[in-house]
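Box S1 | Example of a co-folding query
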Amino acid sequence: MSNVEQDPAELRCGGVSTAAEPEAELLEPRVVPLGGPRAMMVGRTLPNRDRRMVGAWCFADFYGPADIAGQPGMQVPPHPHTGLQTVSWLLDGEVLHRDSLGNEQLVRPGELNLMTAGRGISHSEESPAGHGPVLHGAQLWVALPGAQRDVAPHFEHHGDLPVVSSPEGEVTVLMGELAGAASPARTYTPLMGAEVSISAGRALRLPLETDFEHAVLAMSDGFSVDGRPVGVGEMLYLGRGRAQVELGSGRALLLGGVPFEEQIVMWWNFVGRSHDEVAQAREDWERGRASGAPDGRFGVVHGYAEPALAAPALPNAELRARGRTRKPS
Ligand code: MN
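Box S1 (continued) | Returned holo structure for manganese (II) ion
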């Protein structure tokens, strides 16, 4: 998925605050267009105005359920990433990923597509020909720690994630560990991500890692966290130091991680540490896009029907690294 805002705001994240933090903070989604001229609308809860990250999770888009019968659906042309992992998760439908390493992988509900951009990769995402009538899912980004932000790019598909079942419902662990189950997906900082699907009229109490901060993204109507209603598409930030949480019936993503101490620069599809790093990534993308050079930093995505996305212009002001919250520390 690409951030295709025409004039993307500069977003600087990271940095631990020593100030007291709230036990619960509702993060409402911004509605933004995704992907090219026939954009679908998505709800973006991270980065949020006041809270930019949850652990290393730095971006969260939730979309649908959208009726895409007889329509293009998701069509995101080739675009670059650096310094992050993209996490693609569906509740309904299918999305085809292609990348500059030559990977071509359909992702379906219950499966994880995880792309580690490292020093640079490009990819496209599309509803494939003959797609189903509904598209419903989430895309999240995880910031890589500074020491590993330049790792070689790689792609993982996990079609057999651990699922913890109980009379209350199911927990599928996408990243990290929860409720005694561990995902095989590669992580670079201590974090977790899981989908919970809880039966009607039931509630599920889950143990949490007290070193983590956590948040819950509600993906169905009528969801609740510790008895507090959370609307579909909204995220409830839960702070640090919690040993458990009680989730009501419905579906949600539970995210957590050790607070991300580094300040980062997040602009367009890049996560870096400085203006110059991001500007260089932009320049490298534009140069490779013009030449179609397969040996360039971002390679070439084969098989997508339309041209690669052009990078937006950099803002006039210098991009500066920012902390994980907007509040002063
Ligand atoms: Mn993308």
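The first strand starts at residue 11 and ends at 13. The pocket of manganese (II) ion is lined by residues 1-2, 79, 81, 86, 123, 269 (CB under 6 Å).
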